[in-house]
Amino acid sequence: MRRPSARRITALVTAGLLLPALAACGSDNDKGGSADGGDSTLVIYSGRNEKLVKPILDKLEKAVGSKVEVRYGDSAELAAQILEEGDRTKAGLFFSQDAGALGALSKEGMLAKLPQSSLDEVDPAYRGGAGDWVGLSGRVRVIAYNPDQVAEDEVPDSVHDVVKPEWKGKVGFAPTNASFQAFVTGMRVLDGDDATREWLKDLKASGKTYANNLATLDAVESGEVFLGLVNHYYWYERVAEKGEAKVNAKLHFLPGKDPGALINVAGAGILKDGGQTATAQKAVDYLLSEEAQTYFADKTKEYPLAAGVTSSVEGLPPFDSLNAPDIDLGKLESLQETLAMLQDVGLV
Predict the structure, then answer these.
(1) How many CA atoms lie within 13 A of 230 on its CB side?
(2) Which of 24, 217, 230, 244 has the most CB within a 10 Å radius?
(3) Are 142 and 157 within 8 A, CB to CB?
(4) What is the mean pLDDT of residues 6-24?
């Protein structure tokens, strides 16, 4: 197994990714299972929030016929942990919040190639080009806005416009959030590093930072900011909890294949060296099944990507109506360059 270079690991530590993951996951390097799956434990490193996915992962244990141990954390941190562990990794399956972390592991040759039957469940645009990871659900970047402060036809149609003078002090965002970082990586791919760096400098000068998407949405609802850069499903989850009449924010889906309309995916890849390939493959197939895809559609308010399942969420635009930019999600793997840029401009 080709191990990541010392320079790469050092960069991850410098970016603040590796040490938190090491502390969270420990240093025991015994395998979590055997090559044939057997009755061994399947160890999942999950970059998805426990509150969102624990119910479906609990069901997964019965589906694969094996005990399942889930370690939750930030996707980038867990990817860094796997890179550090190399062929000693305990992980059998990596369940990532975003394509970038999966792409980073794919680039280092740490993921096993998936059967074509699994890959064919998902459109090629939402799976790894090397055939070693597959998207499970999609999330769209949107602009949330406070309708008491700004009319819908006044909301910018491009993320580039939120840094214009008229929005100074009125835009919220979460720079440490993995989805924001994936979006910035997408902008780097689409617009280039120089343009993205200038945009980030302008955003830092004119916007307000928050800990996460939920805090950003809170700020929009309270009127602390007029606009917020978030993922679509946070708003739909809040509407499901409180009712739309009690949510003082609306969503604007960006047109014209704008970088701010990126569709990122949560996905899964099997670790070559986890010793749990057969059981992990069963887990991938379950997560692509109608039951799991319906869960993502109905419970987490995301876009299901497989099994012919469509969202039943009221008011959610059809997936094929979205105007996402044309981008190879595998190119979102350059996360460390994005983190370095965010550090350089003082946002992380």
Answers:
(1) 32
(2) 230
(3) no
(4) 40
